[in-house]
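Section 4.2 – Deliverable D4.2 (structural model, holo form)

The reporting period included a commitment to supply a predicted holo structure for the target in complex with pyridoxal-5'-phosphate. Inputs used:
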Amino acid sequence: MSGQESHVLSGEMHRQYISIERSEGIYLYDQDGRRIIDASGGPIMASLGHGLDEMADALRDQAKKCVFAFRWDFTTPILEEASAKVCEVTGGAMDKVFFVSGGSEATEIAFKLARKYHLDNGEPSRFGVISRWMGFHGFTSGALSMTGFPGRRADFIPYLRDFGHIAPAYCYRCWYNLKPETCDLECAQALEHEILCQGPQNVSAFIAEPISGMALCAACPRQDYFQKIRQICDKYGVLLILDEVMTGFGRTGKWMAYEHFGVVPDIVALGKGLGGGYFPVGAVACTARVAETIASGSGVFGVGHTWMGNPLASAVVVKAIEYLRRHNLIQRSAEMGEYLIQRLKELRSHPTVGDIRGKGLMIGLEFVKDQETKEILDPGLKYYSQVALEALKQGMFLEAGGGCERGRGGDMLMFGPPFIVTRDQIDEMVAILDKVLSVVEKRIGF
Ligand code: PLP
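Output (structure tokens):
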């Protein structure tokens, strides 16, 4: 916006934000009609593509029937349908669903659900939630306490309650200086050390993203990492919460990213693509064991938000699942992701491209000063921001961030376009990034 005072409180208060007037497919259009490729689907969120009439119709039709029925006192047919459908796409692994308004609320509810399970299971001393450094679980205080993304925690540390963070599964810069081909999964073993030091009787849950979000831009663990994590959790009676807010609902080429790793969590947190990008909705789903333990104990899960289980959100979830299925978009996310990563690998000729990683349409790039030593670029350059701004200038939005090197620096960006993206559109995105990197590398003296 320019030329008039804005009353919007912005994250970057001195930035001139582009005003988006409409969106369609993988494109956003600004007030002057300029086209911007939404190469990250917002913050890795818009999965179906923008501007679908049938999503708007689903909202309008539900709005005509019922926009609100307080969940504490009522249910609705559409909420029942949405809950059943979410369980269905987990292949029945999850049995009950609690809908909220976004990802942070989902992770907040997830750890409270774990706590409630232990209370009703006769283990009231279990309360701690172990998480990982370089994980992100949201900005509300409970979620931020579990978050291990130093840059996002820094200003709010006095409000946070920490239950212990372990090292991330970050093979490109292994914190143990090991190689995935020969290591003993020390990063997973760290969970056992942490549980033992805290006392298993005090630990309620372990939470992690199956594939890292913005803090490590699509870093994937070794294939057997989560199996080891699952074994450790089971050994000590600790619940496994997987935060699939970014990875869930097809983003990685499967309904749930945990399917890549042959494990099933006790609790899963969902958001972003759950509503296809059409409504603020999140959810927590849990196994029958978790739900039945609470049901046969106190029979009460006494948490709530005014907008929980909202009918409009439910209608969008039902429609999004139906749309994903009808257009075979989960498979498409896997296939287009393969093509995207293969095309992006051609950019390794750029001296700053360090690592290219991810699954499905969640592909991260990490930049370096030196490809051999993996030395990071001078954090003062804000290379990630320069790349993102130059890309925007050239008509492409990319979500970029810094701090992968223990919060001290390290530049990354993430591709996460809608699943409808075509090969030609991917070619265009890669060509723009190629040009952008040439411009920015030259600018900083490569
Ligand atoms: N968990 C993960 C893995 C995320 O990536 C995010 C958001 O980026 C959240 C939780 C928080 O979700 P929301 O921004 O909808 O509150």
